Amino acid sequence: MHRRTNPEVDQVDAKVERKEAESSVVTLRSGRRVGVATYGDPNGLPVLAMHGAPACRLMFDAADGPAHACGVRLIAFDRPGYGLTPLDYGASLQSRTDVFAELPDALGLDRFSLFGISGGGPYAVALAARLGSRVTGLALVSPLGPVADVASRSAPDPVHLSTMQRGFFLDLPRHHWFLRSNAEIVLRSFRVAPSFFVSTVGHLLPEVDRAIITREDVSRSLIPMTLEATRHGTLGAIADLEIFSEPWHVDYGQITAPARLWQGTADTIVPLGVSLKLGELVPDCTVTQVEGGGHFWIYDAIPDVLKAVVSLSSH
Hints:
The protein is 39% helix and 18% strand. By secondary structure, the chain is an alpha/beta fold. Strands 1, 2, 3, 4, 5, 6, 7, 8, 9 and 10 form a 10-stranded mixed β-sheet that branches. It is globular.
């Protein structure tokens, strides 16, 4: 691993309840500015971490201790519209991949691993295909797969979606103003009473997820992370959902890194079949179905997953 210093990094303060994150705003070659937080061992294996949706760089604060223990330097960055990164209006998966491909050079990274969680999965896969041999490992946790490619009614042998999943991932993103107005109502409710909101949302989830997100240690991370993610409103989350509803146009054959995908069998947020299909599309990908695991099982398995990330990079 070779690292270089970058004079175009402006230090900023960003705090969560459990630790002070080492956050910065990085200016890329294109002039785009990206919010970044670093966790774990500053001299460890570099891993670019891609958060879920809606979320931000602070999603990985819970991984700080385990990353230190595993010798991992987790570099988490805000996607456009979240946290410290300005929104990119009219973006696509391809246009964002063009921008994200500049980040390793701005951070002085030659080779590194990618770690995508949930809505970060599409971006991790697209970036792995774009950067090829620079990526030493690809880890995907509860990743959203290419819904429009494999589950639309026009797809050959389409993956089954429930009516609710089809409406959320394929139909709702076509109605921007309806989506935006309802998202703003949800955000206002969250800001008025965050703890009550998390508890209420928990009742809509399976018991396995409800038990995790209502825990004090998880909510201490989840609430400030969501407040930071939505500091500029809901457009980041809406842009993500609109991008997820479109074909990916990813050349999976360009992915050269060994890959690992974990998917909970009781996940009601990410469609199980779509996630597993992604595991088939990514070359050299080991798929692990977490029996009885919901969408948030990762909170109880961070050390094991990070150890697996290190193992991928040693292949």
